[in-house]
Structure formats: C-alpha cells, structure tokens
Design brief:
By secondary structure, the chain is α+β, with helices and mostly antiparallel strands. The protein has helices at 3-32, 36-39, 64-80, 164-172, 177-204, 211-230, 282-297, 305-308, 333-336, 339-350, 415-421, 526-534, 540-545, and strands at 44-49, 55-58, 91-94, 106-115, 118-128, 154-158, 161-162, 235-243, 250-259, 262-266, 311-314, 366-370, 383-386, 424-431, 447-453, 459-464, 485-488, 497-502, 508-511. The protein is 30% helix and 20% strand. Helix 1 runs antiparallel to helix 5 and helix 3 crosses helix 7. The radius of gyration is 24 Å and the shape is globular.
C-alpha cells in the first residue's frame, strides 16, 4: 500500500469519526432537553464547521430544515463576530428567522472550538423551544414582532461566564420558563461535548488543524454530487403545486434546470406573501429544496458544504418562499416542507423511475393549550406540541410509508408523554382506513386521532395544517391520497389554521392525510390487496371499487363487513 493510499484511508476514518462526534453532540442535546418535541421527537440539529463556516459533518439525528438552514447560520455568526475576536469558552445565540432556521422558536447556539490554545473550528446546534412568548398562535401573527422573543446575534457565554441578563430575558418571555431555560443550557452543553470529542480525535491523529480534512471532505463530496448530476439529462422542467393557504389557495411554481455545474431551482411565478404566519424565509426554502434534490440525486452522499454547493435556488423577493423581514413566518414549515414535492414534480419528468408520488409532506403537529378562561387549578394552564404526520407518496417500485415524518425526519411524540404533561387524554390513535391513494403501489396511510380534556375543562387547539383541501396527488394512474380532516365529535368541521376551542366533554377528531398512489390500481397484486384488507388498512368497498378485488371469507371479514 502506498503512502498516498494510507493517507486517504486515514482521511476517510477521520471523516467517519467526525460524523460520530456530531452524533454524540446531537444525542447530548436530545437527552438533556426539557421540551418533549426535542427529547422525544428529535426536532434538532447538530454539526461541525471549519474556520470558514463551512459545514463538514452533520448528525444523523436531526431534521433537514434545521441542519440545512443552520449550515448558513455559522457564516452569519462569523460575519458578526470574526474568528479572531472569539475566545475559548465563548458561545453565541440567535433565533433570527433570516439568519437562523426560519422562525423564532428555534434557537441556534454556535461555539468556537480550541485545540492547544488555537481556534480550529466551530460547533453549532439547533432545537425547537415550545414557548418563547408572542401570540401563542402559530399561524395568527401578522408580522415577526408578534411571534415572541427575537434574539439578534448575541454572545450568551463569555469565556465560560453565562450572560445572566440575556438568560433572564429568555425566561421572562416564556410561558414555560423552566423548560425554555433548560433547553438553552442543553444547546450550550452539547456543543461543549462535541468540542471535547473533536479535540480527543485531533490528539489521536496528531492533527494541528482541520484544514486538510475539510478540503478532503468538501472536495470529494462536491465531486460525488456533480458526478451523479452528470448522469442526469440536461434541460429545464416545470411544476406547479396548489396549497390550502390561509383563507385562499396559494400557488407554488418551480423551474428546475440541470446543467454541467449543478441543479438550479427558480421559484418565479410563486404567489406573494400573505398577512399571516405561514410565509417562508429563503434559508428554509433552500433547506428543504436541497434536501428534496439530495434524496433523488445524491442520497448516498453525506450532507455537508461540498454536497450542498451544487444545489442552488432563487426566488422573487416577498414571494411566499422568500419572505422578507418583517413578514410573519412562525409556521414556515407549512409551506416550506412542500418543497420536496414541488421539485419532485420537476424531477419526475427527467427521471420518472426514481421519484415518488406526492405525500402528506408538512408535519401534522397537534399543539394544545389550556384555556385562559379555565379555573386556575393544576393542569389547566399548559401548552405542548405532539408531533404527527401523514402518509408518504408511493414510489414507482413500492408502497409509500405510513404515518412517517417525511421530509421533516421528526418522530411522533408518544401519547404517554403528552398525557403526563398536558391535561388531555387520547381515546384513539391508529391508522386511518382507506386514507392511502390507490395504485399499483399504494400511498402511505394517515392516522386517526381523538383527543379530549382529561379534567373536564375547555382546551385550545392550535391548527397549522395543510392537505385538507388539496390532497397529495397520485401519478401515472395512481389515485390521490385522502385529504386531512379536523373536526369535533359533536359535528362541526374545524379550520386548518388558527386557534379553535375544544369544549369540555367534546373530542377533537384528527385524520392526517394519506400519500398519493403510483400506477394503475387495477395492476396491483390481488394478494397485496387482500393483505391490506386483513390488516384493516383498506375497506372491502375500496378493495372492490379501486382494485377490483372482492372480499372473501379467507380475508377474515364477517359477512356484514363484506
């Protein structure tokens, strides 16, 4: 083995070690977090950056919306606080939506890392905080100043000393001050652990800096992505996607161009911003656009500065996917998480054998809070979010996954956790029968959920949902997924967005959307249809009408069910 081959192997081992370092960083964040959306659902990100602010490695644990927008944040930190001014023990914080991860409820903490007295890189992390003040309504704000505490680029730790004034401000602006303060400390702590592990790695491999490793990672990743892009046809393709919007539909448009230098997406023609909190800063649009492209084009290549560089976007100022300050952006995920489906519609025309049908896409989070009119008794004053999702779209070669948080990557919050911290009880949480779009390969199923107050008091439901009016579309003969549903057991339908009361004794009924099907349902294997029947995923009527398969006694159904 030559010296060059040995050096290359060492670099590969160090690259893998970096991934292990940032994964431990993320696990520390998750295990020390106070908020269940971080602790149980993994709504976080963690990564290590070189001295130029370029992301070298990201943790496996985490969300694309966080990591791919946080990848830009470290550059903003270095612009405000040049590396030569940073000291060992410093840490910096922001929740600026346009320099962070798209809305004020995500804190980003960035920490310089020192080795033998010399700064060699930075660690950065993000997590979602349940309450940082504001209107307490995720879609109802009309500008960013109504969306809670706004932290510009500030130093939160100065050479090991915590900025107690800033920490007091954070506590004072939260309805859950203990959780909010605890989550802030968990962000600071995980970066410290990441730095310690990196220093140990550098000592082990006798490294004095990360420069050579950084160039290896970034250069090889960029080349690998460009090689994959080189296998694609050249050209420009267009797609349009219509969303429920807030009171009126919103049209999203994309033009995707594949060239020798990369993939570029232009959102010209997309509708303008709206006067409610569903607008999207460009950093978040880039995050989910790049993720969608990466899933199809470069799914085997690690995510870092080099692999992201060939994937670029542009959008007109103050269209809904490039909202400028001070637009309301708290629920930016509602539109932003549709970006993969939007670009998939373009890629489907270029590489139809790789791209799935549309899915539920946006998270179907269930945010509930105690009514302000409830008596001041224990349990009446609460606020929490349970993460939820619908079905993924079917692929050209397999069924879509059911109740899966794609593209967010966020896990579902266990019912038991929610019931211990909020005065609600879950009466039902199961697959929603017939919610998947029929096809040669069917879409993934959504979920049926029923929630009631456990103390006989009203509670508030903070709706921030999509795919109720415009469901996930099927393709190549596949049928659309079933749209989502919000209602009360007593009968009234609820709106997809806004705070709405759930009266004592009534139940909140939720059905998350199903994914679209792919291919002619009549071509689906009857054995697969009967398996779905036996599992209760589809009804006998759907088996007959969509797939042409009659239920039989062997399917385990009673005569009345047929």
């Amino acid at each position: 083995m030559t010296t060059d081959q040995t050096a290359l192997i060492d670099l590969q081992i160090m690259w893998n070690r970096l991934i292990a370092v940032v994964e431990e960083q993320a696990q520390v964040l998750q295990r020390t977090a106070f908020s269940p959306i971080v602790r149980e659902a993994g709504d976080l990100s963690a990564g290590v950056f070189d001295m130029q602010g370029r992301m070298l490695a990201q943790a496996v644990t985490g969300t694309p919306g966080h990591i791919n927008s946080m990848a830009l944040t470290v550059g903003h930190v270095l612009r405000h606080f040049p590396a030569e001014t940073m000291k060992e023990g410093d840490a910096y914080i922001t929740n600026d939506p346009w320099m962070g991860t798209g809305h004020t409820s995500d804190f980003v903490v960035t920490t310089p890392c020192f080795h033998k007295g010399r700064m060699i890189g930075l660690f950065s992390c993000t997590s979602h905080l349940i309450d940082i003040g504001g209107m307490n309504a995720s879609t109802e704000s009309t500008d960013v100043f109504m969306e809670g505490l706004y932290i510009p680029m500030l130093k939160i730790v100065d050479q090991g000393a915590v900025n107690e004034t800033l920490m007091a401000m954070i506590r004072a602006n939260s309805r859950t001050p203990i959780d909010t303060e605890g989550d802030t400390y968990s962000l600071i702590a995980c970066n410290d652990v990441g730095c310690r592990r990196l220093v140990e790695m550098m000592d082990e491999f006798s490294l004095s800096d990360l420069d050579g490793l950084a160039e290896h990672i970034i250069g090889h990743s960029r080349a690998a992505v460009l090689a994959e892009i080189g296998k694609l046809p050249r050209g420009t393709w267009h797609n349009t996607l219509v969303t429920d919007g807030y009171g009126a539909p919103i049209t999203l448009k994309a033009s995707l161009t594949i060239s020798d230098t990369g993939i570029h997406v232009d959102f010209a023609g997309t509708d303008p911003i709206v006067p409610r909190g569903i607008n999207v800063p460009l950093c978040y649009t880039l995050a989910y656009t790049a993720y969608g492209l990466g899933c199809i084009v470069a799914k085997e290549i690690p995510n870092n500065y080099g692999s992201l560089e060939p994937l670029t976007i542009e959008a007109p100022e103050n269209c809904i996917v490039n909202a400028m300050k001070p637009a309301a952006v708290w629920s930016r995920h509602i539109i932003g998480q549709l970006m993969p489906d939007l670009v998939f519609g373009c890629l489907r025309q270029a590489v139809p054998d790789r791209v799935p049908a549309e899915g539920s896409a946006t998270l179907w989070n269930v945010t509930v809070s105690g009514s302000r009119h409830s008596p001041p008794r224990f349990g009446a004053n609460f606020r929490t979010t349970m993460t939820g999702s619908g079905g993924m779209g079917a692929l050209p070669y397999r069924d879509g996954l059911s109740v899966t948080g794609y593209p967010s990557g966020v896990r579902g919050t266990p019912v038991e956790i929610v019931e211990t911290i909020a005065s609600v009880i879950f009466w039902r949480k199961e697959y929603a029968e017939d919610s998947s779009g029929a096809g040669l390969h069917r879409g993934g199923l959504g979920q049926a959920i029923e929630i009631e107050s456990s103390i006989g008091e009203d509670f508030n439901f903070h709706a921030a949902h999509e795919r109720i009016i415009y469901p996930a579309r099927g393709f190549d003969g596949g049928l659309d997924g079933m749209p989502g549903l919000l209602a009360l057991r007593s009968g009234p339908r609820l709106k997809g967005k806004g705070i709405q009361p759930v009266p004592a004794g009534d139940r909140l009924l939720i059905r998350t959307p199903g994914g679209g099907g792919f291919g002619d349902p009549g071509q689906r294997d009857p054995a697969a249809v009967r398996a779905d029947l036996r599992a209760g995923l589809i009804s006998p009527q759907t088996a007959r009408d969509a797939y042409g398969v009659e239920a039989a006694p062997a399917d385990g159904l009673m005569p009345a069910d047929r």
